[in-house]
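Have a close read of the entry that follows and walk me through the local backbone shapes. See right below:
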Amino acid sequence: MSLKAFHTIFVGAAVVLMAFLSGWTFLAYRRTGSAEYVVWSLVSAVSVIGLIAYGRFFLRKLRNVSFL
């Protein structure tokens, strides 16, 4: 497995985990009403957006490098 393939899988897994965390903390906010959960949900959502942008940048930068 190349470094490009590993990096793509790792960033994809990070996106999924941060999206899960964002949803989980938002549901915790709805259950408890604590503002702390809103902050963590927003931080997680911004992280998802940042990771997606980074993943696109990375794939564009290494467009000519094989996944193998």
